[in-house]
């Protein structure tokens, strides 16, 4: 059976082909940017025909949206798995801050953000999707942890949503933001990072 005749027959084959296409597309988007990437080049990089590519994604925008969603979901799963039963707030926030910075500063991790920012003015749906699945989800998950600590009497925070957002912004300030603007290189593999902007709310 040729590639142009390909039709997914099982969920496993379907997922594998989708993964193959998305990996190829990610490589092209990183190298060419959204505007420079073409569906033909993506098909070549992924090792599929354009016909097969369009079976899975009907446009470049849909393909990029799928990659953005996956990146954001990966961040939430890797970084924001917080245990509300762990009341050592400073230790929890330290682990979260370090994991968050490492995720943001990983090799190639800045390119998707740069691409989303560059196209979000004319394609606001992609910007909205990226923010909802990424930053907004992180703020919400951290907010739920903090809310549980406030309810248990371990913290006193007047505005939980603002505190969660400020904490995550503070994590980015000195390492990720210089990196995303190519002002500085990635942080050292081993670094000391002890965020305290929310731990300061801790009740005595």
Can you put this structure into words, describing what you see?
With 204 residues, this protein is mainly α. 65% of the residues lie in helices and 0% in strands. It is built from 10 helices and no strands. It has helices at residues 11-36, 39-46, 50-56, 60-79, 89-104, 111-119, 124-133, 135-151, 160-173, 176-180. Helix 1 (11-36) packs across helix 2 (39-46). It is elongated. The protein starts with 10 loop residues before the first helix and ends in a 24-residue tail after the last helix. Residues 1-8 have low confidence and may be disordered.
Order of helices and strands: HHHHHHHHHH
**Uncertain ranges:** 1-8
User: DSSP strand (E) fraction?
Assistant: under 5%
- Principal-axis shape: elongated
User: Which structural class is indicated by helix and strand composition?
Assistant: mainly alpha
Distance between the termini: 70 Å
Q: Level of helix content? A: 55-70%
- Rg estimate, integer Å: 20 Å
Task: Sketch the major β-sheet.
Answer: none
Overall mean confidence score, pLDDT: 83
Which terms would index this structure?
disordered N terminus, 65% helix, mainly alpha, 204 residues, single chain, elongated
Element layout with pairings:
Layout: H1 11-36, H2 39-46, H3 50-56, H4 60-79, H5 89-104, H6 111-119, H7 124-133, H8 135-151, H9 160-173, H10 176-180
Helix pairs in contact: 1-2, 1-4, 1-6, 4-7, 4-8, 5-9, 7-8, 8-9
